[in-house]
Write a structure and sequence with these properties.
The chain is built from eight helices and six strands. The protein is of the alpha+beta class. It has a single domain (about 10-195), classed as 2-Layer Sandwich (Alpha-Beta Plaits). Strands 2-3-1-6 form a four-stranded antiparallel beta sheet. The chain has a two-stranded antiparallel sheet with strand order 4-5. Strand 2 and strand 3 (about 55-60) form a beta hairpin. Helix 1 (about 25-40) runs antiparallel to helix 2. It is globular and about 45 Å long. The two termini are about 15 Å apart.
Amino acid sequence: MKFLPNNVYHVYNQGNNQQQLFYTDADYKRFLELFSSYVLPFADVLAWSLIPNHYHFMLSVKENCVPVKQGNIMLDSVSNGFRNLSGAYAHEFNKAHQKSGSVFRPKTKSKNLTDDKSAMSYLNCFYYITQNAWRHGIVSRVSLWKYSSYHFYAGTRKQSICNMELAKQLCEFDSSTFIKLTEQRIPDELVNSFFEA
């Protein structure tokens, strides 16, 4: 992964061998706390979703994303943040659930949506991530899943890691149409454009 300031990315990873990443409310909460410590200082969140075996974030990288030396390699601040997040969460997860070994797939993936040049790519990715638990059949309606940015944008959660003003600017977020648009499934043929080729 390489993240550039002022670019928008879809970032995602899943459990190693598709294993479950989150078992309890405490797992979801702790992952978001670690994300807030390691990644949030360097990127604004536009949308997010955590489901039992994977996660998605839509991020706008901040100006302070700079190269960081880690051992013999150079990483940017966001890549290093995800590296630290994965390591810290894996350590705590394994300890809490009496497990050992890798928790995440070795490589967190990202797709630079800024490269797409399609005005709709931000909007569609924003709604795709919000719909994720519903798309995977975990819930029958988007509003029933609590581990996503949905409730913040729907006005039923007051605090969030999301930057609503930036979502309005980049993703054309509009509170008057949000719930209706979230309930309209993004066509599958558009979804591939949000993922690394």
